[in-house]
Amino acid sequence: MPDYLTLLSADEPSPFGLENELGQSPFVIVCEHAGARLPKSLGTLGLDDEHLTRHFMWDIGALDLARIIAQRLDAPLATQRYSRMICDCNRHWEAESFIPTHGEGIPVPANADLTPAERARRRAEIWQPFQDGVANMLDAREARGQRTLFVTIHSFTPTFFGKPREVEYGVLFDRDTTLSPALLKALRAQHGEKALANEPYDMNRDSDYTVPVHGEDRGLDSVEIEVRNDLLSTREQIETRANELVFALREAAENLGVTTNPPKKGTTL
What we know:
The protein has about 270 residues and is α/β, with parallel strands linked by helices. The chain contains 5 helices and 11 strands, in the order ββαβββαββββαβαβα.
């Protein structure tokens, strides 16, 4: 394919990142909205600089939170480096929201009126490498005979179109009947009504991809965790939330009869 028809140049990184690939934990941590990186070929997508730090570009605080959790559990961490405004790697490529034309009501000029070839390019260079990376990682764990508890980490805004959100932790799932309720029980013991099932979003196969396809379709115990991003504003806050989630995840695993490694301490960002 000629250079002018490629999205990423040779010196730009792959969308898929993998840390601690051979971690011994039964947990696998995934962060699909980890980065706000933009391919050089697309500039700023026509957005003003002030918009590039908004939550609609990526899940603020989610990567640091996911990284600490993975380190303390000795779990692999799979990440996606590019902004979800390029394409959303937690959506099916045929979904209407796969390439958003607006972010929290703000138009994204470079995403308007894309040709089929442009959409296909984003799928081929961003979405597909990430999906292949996650699938290959899970295949390798299965080949090694490792049990997998599949967890994705996201964050959400404290208000959405002017409506406050009181929930602090969301436990999202579609068909999972094992890890999700066990984790919800553990978080409810800590936070009561601040931890809710399928809030602030309802998971289904039309709105989500990672957990339904990579997790539930494989028969893995699976859950998506959402954390309100004003609770992830400082290193101290992120450490606190990581501690709470590590404790809850280990308790959930033990309730399923799965042995986990003791949490690692002294982790820094």
